[in-house]
Specification:
- By secondary structure, the chain is mainly alpha-helical.
- About 35% of the residues lie in helices and about 10% in strands.
- It folds into two domains: about 20-90, Fe,Mn superoxide dismutase (SOD) domain (Helix Hairpins), CATH 1.10.287.990; about 100-210, minor pseudopilin epsh fold (3-Layer(bab) Sandwich).
- It is built from seven helices and three strands.
- The longest helix is centred in the first third of the chain and has 23 residues, at about 20-45.
- The protein binds manganese (III) ion.
């Protein structure tokens, strides 16, 4: 199985002015595509048993990936998985607060949705160099939501956290539009067409079909086995 670049779930210009068409195209058509290409190239030399594995499986089972391609697979399966989630976490019809069980969980963990947004954007702005900022459900036994960051393309999935929302804080996500102003990119800079001053990633579901949130009660993520490569999770 060849890994494939997913089609954007909206047009490249759909999130303008916050993410303009050129920035979106370069990010998706070049950066994400490069991760997919590199992943396929690395796996071409791997045992056939790894050829049909998903990016999630590969990241949760890095110890089973030959050592000579392990770092390449980690970086590029991570880049592929995170960007695939990222595109789906945004919507031209998004914006606004979630409701129901997720809203309750947010209030319980952070005090309010506004407090969570502030914390999420601050964590993303302060993350040093490239990486991702996440809202996650903590592993079993820690029934709470948390904000954390990961370096590179590491995912908190590998340590049992369930990603609910993410934002890309690599320079390539915003440099063409916001240049070095990462906080402007994270907060929308007041220019977002998605929702007034809402960060573009805060795209709550407009309709069930476009639901961008995973339920904090979802149990579809398997308990990960021990792996050799641990991400440095940072809890701001
Ligand atoms: Mn990116």
């Amino acid at each position: 199985m060849k890994h494939l670049l997913p089609v954007l779930p909206y047009s490249a210009s759909a999130l303008e002015p916050h993410i303009d068409a050129r920035a979106m195209s370069v990010h998706h058509d070049m950066h994400h595509a490069a991760y997919v290409k590199a992943l396929n190239e690395a796996l071409a030399s791997a045992p056939e048993s790894l050829h049909d594995k998903s990016p999630e499986w590969l990241l949760l089972n890095l110890a089973k990936v030959p050592e000579n391609i392990r770092t390449t697979v980690r970086n590029n399966a991570g880049g592929h998985l995170n960007h695939s989630l990222f595109w789906r976490s945004m919507s031209p019809d998004g914006g606004g607060a979630p409701s129901g069980a997720l809203a309750d969980a947010i209030d319980q963990a952070f005090g309010s949705f506004e407090a969570l947004k502030t914390r999420f954007d601050k964590a993303g702005a302060e993350h040093f160099r490239s990486g991702w900022v996440w809202l996650v459900k903590a592993p079993h036994g820690h029934a709470t939501l948390q904000v954390l960051t990961t370096p590179g393309h590491d995912t908190p999935l590998t340590q049992g956290y369930v990603p609910l929302l993410l934002n890309d804080v690599w320079d390539h996500a915003y440099y063409l539009k916001q240049e070095n102003r990462r906080p402007d990119y994270l907060s929308g800079g007041g220019r977002s067409s998605i929702g007034t001053k809402l960060p573009v990633a805060w795209s709550a579901p407009g309709t069930p079909r476009k639901c961008q949130w995973s339920s904090p009660d979802e149990k579809h993520v398997p308990i990960p086995p021990p792996i050799t490569a641990r991400s440095k999770l940072r809890f701001p």
